[in-house]
Amino acid sequence: MAAAPVCLLNRLLLPGVRPVSRVQLTWLCGRPRSHSTASGIPGVKERTLVAVKPDGVQRRLIGQIIKRLEQRGFQLVGLKMLQVSEELLAQHYASLHRKPFYPSLLRYMTSGPVVAMVWEGHNVVKSTRMLVGNTNPAEAAPGTLRGDFSVHVSRNIVHASDSAEVAQKEISLWFQRSELIDWECCDHGNIYHP
Ligand SMILES: Nc1ccn([C@@H]2O[C@H](COP(=O)(O)OP(=O)(O)OP(=O)(O)O)[C@@H](O)[C@H]2O)c(=O)n1
Ligand SMILES: Nc1ncnc2c1ncn2[C@@H]1O[C@H](COP(=O)(O)OP(=O)(O)O)[C@@H](O)[C@H]1O
Ligand SMILES: [Mg+2]
Question: Which of 22, 45, 47, 192 is 20 to 30 Å from the Cα of 79, by its Cα?
Answer without folding.
Answer: 192
